Amino acid sequence: MKTLIAWLEEHKDWTVEFLRMYLGLVLILKGIYFIRDMDQLLALIGLSASIWAGGLFAHYIVLAHLLGGLFVILGLITRYAVAAQLPILTGAVVIAYLREGLMAETSNFEFTSLVFLLLVVFLFYGGGRLSVDYLLENARNR
What we know:
single chain; mainly alpha; globular; 7 helices
């Protein structure tokens, strides 16, 4: 039992690493969801009437979620991948708050603000030990 506790103490930063990977998976799944229902995405961002602006923003959101989510899972250029998500999630938090409010029955505000908070955390934390960023940094320092 003592060896298990010692191992857990030695590897407690892995919890943060798995949280980063889960966040990347959530971003990818949301990107796939938006691909499947592009009309809802356009309605959500309020640009369903404008084909060019709506298409531009919708494609940015989907690509940022898919590629950014993959990069967050791998820990590859993690801070840049997270930074690309922040404007999207800032808009999502504002839209969710203004449209649904904090106490609405179908509110998405809590989940959206949690994802935003996790993105801010990983903007500062970076990829961590279980990331491609870490491997590349160690290879460069040898």
